[in-house]
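Dear H.,

Thanks for agreeing to be a second pair of eyes. The structure we're designing against is below in token form, covering all 159 positions.
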């Protein structure tokens, strides 16, 4: 049975800002959010393929190494792995390979990415930088808004 919406937080909590996707999912869990299923996807990988394929829509929340300032949030609707930001933090290859595998198997959900810009993922530690920590409430709002918009029934088009 295909489920509706999965919010998948990706990241490594031991590498400071690189774990921001998991922090966002943890915040939603702490609020007892019920608008979508929530999952800590760790650093991604092929073990997530079955979970992803069992949903009609997957919202991935992840850190992105890009040219935006730390804490900048973008909501993207990539169609293929090549449409993702050029670097999704330390697990970039695993997540893109996972999505390519889903495309090859012909069972790809509707995918959205909430990318939160970070500047460094090399340092070990469990603390977020202030800029990334301040972005979490806004990222949580983006997740909720996206889930709400995806959950609305399609409106008939007036002739």
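And this is the sequence the design step returned. I haven't edited it by hand at all.
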């Amino acid at each position: 049975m295909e489920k509706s919406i999965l919010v998948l937080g990706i990241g490594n909590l031991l590498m400071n800002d690189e774990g921001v996707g998991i922090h966002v999912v943890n915040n939603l869990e702490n609020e007892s959010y019920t608008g979508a299923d929530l999952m800590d996807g760790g650093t991604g990988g092929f073990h997530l393929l079955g979970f992803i394929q069992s949903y009609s829509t997957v919202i991935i929340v992840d850190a992105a190494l890009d040219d935006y300032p730390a804490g900048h949030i973008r909501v993207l609707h990539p169609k293929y792995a090549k449409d993702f930001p050029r670097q999704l933090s330390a697990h970039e290859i695993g997540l893109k390979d996972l999505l390519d595998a889903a495309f090859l198997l012909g069972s790809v959900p509707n995918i959205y990415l909430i990318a939160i810009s970070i500047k460094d993922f090399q340092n070990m530690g469990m603390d977020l930088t202030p800029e990334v920590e301040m972005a979490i409430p806004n990222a949580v709002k983006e997740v909720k808004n996206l889930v709400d918009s995806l959950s609305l029934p399609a409106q008939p088009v007036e002739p």
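Two observations from my side: The domain at 3-140 is CATH 3.40.50.1450 (Rossmann fold). The longest helix spans residues 130-151.

Warmly,
E.
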